[in-house]
Input
Amino acid sequence: MDKILVIGTNASGNGGVDISHLATYVVQYPKLWSSDSGRNMRGDNKATLIGIFTKLQVELSPAYDADDISQILGVLNGPSTYVKYYDTETQSLRVEDFYFGDIETQLLDAQANKVTLKQFSIIGNKRREL
Output
């Protein structure tokens, strides 16, 4: 299989930073509902689905050094970018526009400049098109 996760690609999925050492890779499909959603007086659920926005939860293995993490953070701290990722629903690689949610780093040893990038989330800017 090709690379599972590459961040900072162009719209065609080329270039970017390969995230190949993964401890955890979770693909979520959260649904966004409009404000008219809820139950009526009979108890029936009525809702308007705005869309499904792919979310990736990623935890890195400890294989990365400080320079690698700095390069990855350079992409993660940007406003948004294209990401090539393995989609479990379609069982294929997809390229979509994403922004990055929470990013968690941990300083292991300040004197030795040892840091780890624990986990981060990647959230789709646009609803899924299948």
User: Anything to note?
Assistant: Helices lie at 66-76.
